[in-house]
Amino acid sequence: MIDSALRVAKGTGLLLLVGLLSWRIIVSGMAEYYSQQDDRAEAVEALLWQPLQPQGLYQQALTQFESDPPAAERLLQAAAWADPSDALVYLALADLWVKANRVPEAWTLVAVADALGPMRPPVLSRSADFWLRQGQWDRVLARWSNLLLNRPENAKQLFPVLLRVAENPASRLLLQPFLEHPPAWWLQFFSYTAQKAQSPETVLSLYQARRRRGDPLDKVEQQAYLGRLLRDKRWLDAYLAWLNGLDDRQLTVLGNVYNGSFELPLTSVGFDWQVLPLRGVMVETAQTYGARGDRALHISFNGQRAQFRHVLQYLFLEPGQYRLRGWVRVDQLRTERGLRWTMRCAPDRPVLVASELFLGSDDWRLFGVEFTVPESDCMAQVLRLELEGRAALDFEVEGDIWFDDLSIARLEDR
């Protein structure tokens, strides 16, 4: 009988232990559930289940931040004791201490927070806000940089602010660390700056600072920089910057028309061939029979309506008389009027001269046309291949065309 009583007691004790553990699990689970809610009032409800739940304490402190700072401070200190690893708690406490004129201690707390959560986006954002209020721009930019590395989508909010930093000569020096060791977001920011900066001098300053480092510039940087110079009609600056960026192989195809043999890749940078995307049109350099070298320019149209003028090159010709010539082969090119090469004063002035129209089918043959670059208001020129047309049906085009050995010679030099 004693044995039976013991067994009953043990069974009852086990049931009580299981019940107690189950209750603790439920309590902890409910506290954790409420602490993770986005709504602050719901997060505070975690304290009903677990009075020292750190997130609940943190959220309750935030509700009393303005109305009762001493109470908020006690709650934050309790949260820090409950979870010493939560960087956001230290950042909130630092804000309170700044308001209480305890600035040195606040800076120490933020340093702890930065060490605990160096790459967590919420911590980076709050830390940057803190240092911004303290006027510590070097620390602000360092945290924004990490924020952009972790959350590239923040570029939409941060790039306009960084641009204002870049546009002010006094604050531009703060960007020096990024110029010396460009982070992954730098190329995107430089392209943004090249497009949006009010003054081209901002773009020029950043570009020259990068060049002074002596490291090879990325194609994206060069393209953005030259694109801005061309947009601002700074033709000489653009030509010299592009020329200085050419390597030994590229210099071998330098002429009045650059890479007119189409032996090198088309980069769409500066005074190289620029190929703009257009639906229904494929532009490439490829091997083909009868080419003067290994490759020729090939444009293929799939029959869609296309107002094509998407292959061009900026030129830097002195005033005088010239002759454009090249080789062409058309392959079942069907369109109402045809394709032609045009020459204009840049950026898009009236046509100085237009070549014959190309359409139909024909084997390789030579074509040419003479033109004059005027003495004034024509520092740079645009050589462009375009589809001739006026009505909508004129721009329905199908078939292929090839070009090779395009060149421009000054007539006095013949």
Biggest beta-sheet profile: 5 strands, antiparallel
User: Roughly what percent helix?
Assistant: 40-55%
Shape: elongated
The low-confidence parts are 11-44
How many DSSP-defined strands?
Answer: 10
**Class by helix and strand content?**
alpha+beta
The averaged pLDDT comes out at 84
SSE succession: HHHHHHHHHHHHHHHHHEEEEEEEEEE
Quote the beta fraction.
Answer: 15-25%
Radius of gyration: 34 Å
Q: Please, how many helices?
A: 17
Give the neighbour order of strands across the main sheet: 1-4-9-6-7
- Quote the distance from N terminus to C terminus: 127 Å
Give an overview of the whole structure:
There is one protein chain. This protein is α+β, with helices and mostly antiparallel strands and 414 residues long. It is 47% helix and 21% strand. It has 17 helices and ten strands. The chain has a five-stranded antiparallel β-sheet with strand order 1-4-9-6-7, with no helix packed on it. Helix 5 (69-82) runs antiparallel to helix 6 (87-99) and helix 14 runs antiparallel to helix 15 (219-231). The longest helix has 34 residues, at 2-35. The model is unreliable at 11-44 (pLDDT under 50).
